[in-house]
Specification:
With about 250 residues, this protein is of the alpha/beta class. It contains 9 helices and 7 strands; from the N terminus they run E-H-E-H-E-H-E-H-E-H-H-E-H-H-H-E. Helix 1 packs parallel to helix 2. The longest helix has 29 residues. The structure holds NADPH dihydro-nicotinamide-adenine-dinucleotide phosphate (NDP). The site of NADPH dihydro-nicotinamide-adenine-dinucleotide phosphate has 28 residues, from helix 1 and helix 7. The site of NADPH dihydro-nicotinamide-adenine-dinucleotide phosphate (NDP) has 28 residues, from helix 1 and helix 7.
């Protein structure tokens, strides 16, 4: 039997700040019990929980490194103990370690792939059995416009984000027949810690290429993820939805 939409436990990785925090708050506002997740930012994760609880929602914070297998297992165990099997998984945790490919060290390559792509695979594998049994589930992977466009100095990051699009399609083909959808969201330039670090000239040059004439907000992305997580998106699967103010058009 499927659970009422508002009782389905959701896990948003990397929800201590940025897009993940906005997504956790949006899903909680729609009634999902929320597993807020972080790796280092315990305080900000606790603030996300407080914000959800202050608005009348339910949430717990769990710390775990998604770049390693043990961290993923521990995260899923804690999530299940808190609210039951995860019904909505948002693979949002992500890192960059930029540099030109010619000079990129193996460590920078591996760390980004392990966190952004392998972590998403392991967590998806870990939640699928229960989703298939329940005949309802949602997996949303945070990709990026750079997966489609490429970006100099980000071979590791772009490969991880393009890998997520492939993972999304392959999983969707395996599970969509049983009520589980798998989609990706490809944000463009969104205001967050990750983009705050970029030089002002680079930001100004990006702005000229965005038809909407502004950078995105974390809420712009959260709204798309929340749509994909809901019942109304039941017939959307294997897709990558751009939230980029028109930066890329297909
Ligand atoms: P932030 O850098 O603001 O936040 C990253 C989040 O990921 C934090 O919660 C962080 O936890 C968590 N995290 C990082 N490494 C690990 C790890 N090894 N294990 C567990 N958690 C980890 O990122 P954004 O909010 O900007 O981006 C969120 C997602 O959206 C990322 O996947 C990013 O690639 C993607 N994206 C962002 C865009 C943008 O413009 N901002 C554009 C396109 C895609 P902690 O706080 O504990 O460090």
């Amino acid at each position: 039997m499927t659970r009422p939409e508002n009782e389905r436990p959701a896990l948003v990785t990397g929800s201590s700040r940025g897009l993940g925090r906005a997504t956790a708050i949006e899903l909680a506002a729609r009634g999902h019990p929320l597993v807020v997740h972080y790796v280092r930012s315990e305080g900000p994760a606790a603030e996300t929980v407080q914000e959800i609880e202050a608005a009348g929602g339910r949430a717990v914070a769990v710390g775990a490194d998604v770049a390693d297998a043990e961290g993923c297992d521990r995260l899923l165990r804690a999530a299940t103990e808190a609210f039951g099997p995860v019904a909505v998984l948002v693979n949002n945790a992500g890192v960059t370690a930029d540099g030109l490919a010619m000079r990129m060290k193996d460590d920078a390559w591996q760390r980004v792939l392990d966190t952004n792509l392998t972590g998403a695979f392991r967590l998806s594998r870990g939640v699928l059995r229960a989703m298939l049994k329940a005949r309802w589930g949602r997996i949303v992977n945070l990709s990026s416009v750079v997966a489609r466009m490429g970006n100099a100095g980000q071979a590791n990051y772009v490969a991880s984000k393009a890998g997520l699009i492939g993972l999304t399609k392959a999983l969707a083909r395996e599970v969509s027949g049983r009520g589980v959808t798998v989609n990706a969201v490809a944000p463009g330039f969104i205001e967050s810690d990750m983009t705050d670090a970029l030089p002002d000239e680079l930001k100004a040059s990006y702005l000229t290429q965005i038809p909407a004439g502004r950078f995105g907000t974390p809420h712009d992305v959260a709204a798309m993820v929340a749509f994909l997580a809901g019942d109304e998106a039941a017939y959307v699967t294997g897709q990558t939805l751009s939230v980029d103010g028109g930066l890329t058009m297909q």
